[in-house]
Ferredoxin-NADP reductase (Nonomuraea solani), 241 residues
Amino acid sequence: MRRLTWRAAELVHTAAETATARTLRFRVPGWPGHVAGQHVDVRLTAEDGYTAQRSYSLAAPADGDLVELTVETVPDGEVSPYLTEVIEAGDQVELRGPVGGWFVWKPESKAPVLLVGGGSGIVPLMAMVRARRRAGSRVPFRLLYSLRDPTRRYYAGELRRPDPGLDISYLYTRLAPEGASRAAGRIMLDDLAEGGWPAGFEPDCYVCGPTGFVEAAADLLLALGHAPERIRTERFGPTGG
């Protein structure tokens, strides 16, 4: 088994996703590459030697020594406020990874794909969408993206662009935009039945988000007849930010 080591990572580009979320692209010399769906550990070290580290999903497929993350600010957090509000191009952090081998999608897969993301759980799913596009894969994808309101939408411009074979449904839990076909509310059986794939198609299902959302979505998929071994989940729990 390959031993994971900490590597210096220099910030080369940032972009705001929402008022509280930011995408960061780092250059990591010697980066071994990664698969869509994996994550990394990020470590900060203060001048007095104090360290803090958190795990973040990779937001894009492997691209040489470039690594891309999207980070949401956690109020009173130790790491996320620095990454979303303070760090500038040329600054360095440490990264360790990639981590994870179950919640991944590879372009050689031929099964239809259902992605179900809650809030910032869209990040590893977006890496899969981008990996599909980059590979020229013709595997059909369906994305159900649940978020509080339209202002919380990550990758808004990119997801508006046509992407043949990718169908997107937005589910709003607190405030739906004017003209939305669905009232605001939590994910329901009908959402997955209408926006997902029939269980008979044997899709690979990836569900990512807060624990309660993931458990609810996975239970609904099971109720619709999807095989448990085809439902892969990734939960975001409180980590201190």
Q: What stands out?
A: The helical segments are 80-86, 122-135, 156-160, 189-195, 211-223.
